[in-house]
Amino acid sequence: DKNRARHKRRAMSEHGPFFRRQHLLGIEGLEAYEIEDLLERADAYAELGRKTGKKLDLLRGLTQINLFFENSTRTRTTFELAGKRLGADVVNMSVGSSSIKKGETLIDTAMTLNAMHPDVLVVRHHDSGAVALLARHVRGSVINAGDGSHEHPTQALLDALTIRRRKGRIAGLVVAICGDLLHSRVARSNILLLLALGAEVRL
Prior knowledge:
Elements: H1 2-15, H2 32-49, E1 63-68, H3 73-85, E2 89-94, H4 106-116, E3 120-125, H5 130-135, E4 141-147, H6 153-167, E5 174-176, H7 185-196, E6 200-202
Parallel strand pairs: 1-2, 1-3, 3-4, 5-6
Helix pairs in contact: 2-6, 6-7
């Protein structure tokens, strides 16, 4: 698509080609070029995932810890698979059987995690803001896999990639989001992302 290629070239010339933030805590605050860069990368990796030689070494030597305070087999498994396909050493921490369940604070958890030297920490938590709090106290990169009713940025990126693949663009589309939206972190992230990329959103 010529418009997409032109937008990508302009974004690269103005800001550099890469998403450069240490953490991915939400869609709020991201620039359109950063979202586009993540979508371009996801598109390429999705194609690689369909091929027989699926494993890459982009994260070789790095450790990814999946820390889920809420149960979500699908999301946790997806992050585990993605990390392994990109070459990371992946560890799933079971909150239910850990000291976190026994009253350890998030700051205590951060100190424990720092001792493990993780490079990437994927976190899902039932309280809004908990992931951002952890990010302030750990040395690795933190990815928000859903926090309370705040945000679920990776789900919004996946939804945007699906829309873009089916419709060829996001800018100029009218997108309706239906359902119980008041406390939906997915809806919040979707709204922020779609507006940032020039769609009209109806609820």
